[in-house]
Amino acid sequence: MKDGAAVSGVAKDLSLGGMFILSEQAPAFGTDLTIVARLPGASNESHLPGVVRWTKPGGFGVQFGLPGARETHAISQLLRY
């Protein structure tokens, strides 16, 4: 999260617009965060800006901000399969 607190989770239901994150901790609705992930084809971790759009027991939904071209390409490649 932007305040520096880390929340661990597993990405699920990925799209170019966002993702659902399985997690026992859920940041509050509207929380700005940065998702740190290793995307296919990337040599380094990617940092994806996002905002929490909904929560439910077991996880939360994130809408991406403006990911870079590399991140957008990597997500597009992942979705092809």
| Distance between the ends | 30 Å
Helix content: 10-25%
Count of the separate structural domains: 1
Q: Helices and strands, in N-to-C order? A: EEEEEH
Instruction: Please describe the biggest sheet, giving its number of strands, its sense, and whether it closes into a barrel.
Output: 5 strands, antiparallel
Number of strands: 5
Q: Could you name the ranges where pLDDT drops below 50 across 5 or more consecutive residues?
A: none
Describe this structure as you would to a colleague.
This protein is mainly beta and 81 residues long. It has a single domain, classed as predicted glycosyltransferase like domains (Thrombin, subunit H), CATH 2.40.10.220. It is built from 1 helix and 5 strands, in the order βββββα. Strand 1 and strand 2 form a beta hairpin. It is globular and about 30 Å long.
Task: Write a brief caption for the model.
The protein is 14% helix and 38% strand.
Keywords:
81 residues, mainly beta, Thrombin, subunit H, five-stranded antiparallel beta sheet, globular
Question: Topology of this protein?
Answer:
Layout (H helix, E strand, L loop, with lengths): L9 E3 L5 E5 L9 E6 L8 E11 L2 E6 L4 H11 L2
Antiparallel strand pairs: 1-2, 2-5, 3-4, 4-5
